[in-house]
Amino acid sequence: MLSSRRSRQVLRNCGVLATVLSATVACSSSTSGHGKGGRVHLAFIYSTTSQNPFQEMAFGAKAAAQDAGNVDLTESAPPKIDGPAEVSQFQAATRTSTDGIAMETLNPDLFVRPLKQASDAKVPVVAVDTAPPDGTAVGLYIGNSNTELGRSLATEIIKHIPVGTTGEVVLGNDIPGLALLGQRLDGMKQVIQAERPTLTVLGPFDSGSEPTENFNKWNDLVKAHPNAVAYLGAGASDAVSLALIEKNTGKKFLVGSCDPDAQALQAVKNGYAAALASPEHWLKGYVALALLAQHASTGQALPQGWWNTGSLIINSDNIDQIIDRQSSEASRKAWFAAEVKKQLADPAQYLKPMNQAN
């Protein structure tokens, strides 16, 4: 449980956040929106309820809806990654959440037609985490730079690898073909090849997305490359799986991965993983819902382009702070309060053209 001092700080920060968003979505007599003067009906549609990245985005969306005060939020996702099921949920939301939808998907190609249907029905859509597919009218994408995320993780990992070291670095890709994970891995390769050219980068190999599959595939990869200098993953399950393999074998690996999954954080805390690169998914969910609520309540146009919400390296220096941050929805909200205020106050600082998203 949070200490009384920490609890008071949470309440103060959450109060600031609510005040900022309430001001952001206050109704204007000179503009019009679907929700003007009444309840706003919004939705967050995402890939799966089973994995940390998507749970984090949902927590952020829920917090923004609560702070807006006039939002009825529907959150929908399949229990496991299932593109067609998510499409059905999105299409249902276009009929019930007509004031706006924030959408995250791992199957963007399946959404070309559904997004056109939403546009034809004049339902505003904001893409979250995954850039919208080409040929759609979605004009706002909320997401971090995944190339930079990969570069920052590799930069942290090579601190543990002396210059001139030889050997293999094994890369794993949870969802081969998904552009954002490919960008993370490209960023990792760029840094390793430039800063530690004596290392041999292998992969990326398919490491599987669902936890059990991910563990089995990493187990096979470790057996095939038992003396690798480092094992790096692009997704949420990789550090969790590799930490378990370390425990099972009694061997110590140099491990880096992405996303602040609770078990991955514990792996850093216990020394089984050197670092995690967090895309700060909570912030993406919050910003997307806050902007949709503002648009619906005031009629103010949605920003256009790629809104880069940023990322964070988690290591032994800040692991205790991040574990504390991740302990509850309230502690997440308190942690991000100042950053939310800063970003919503100056959108231009965070926006770039959509085609620059990386």
From TrEMBL:
It is found in: Cell envelope. Pfam families: Peripla_BP_4. Its main location: other. PROSITE patterns: PROKAR_LIPOPROTEIN (PS51257). It comes from the Bacteria. Residues 43-299 form the Periplasmic binding protein domain. SUPFAM superfamilies: Periplasmic binding protein-like I. InterPro entries: Bact_Solute-Bind_Prot2, Peripla_BP_I, SBP_2_dom. Belongs to the bacterial solute-binding protein 2 family. This is Periplasmic binding protein domain-containing protein. The lineage of its organism: Bacteria, Bacillati, Actinomycetota, Actinomycetes, Catenulisporales.
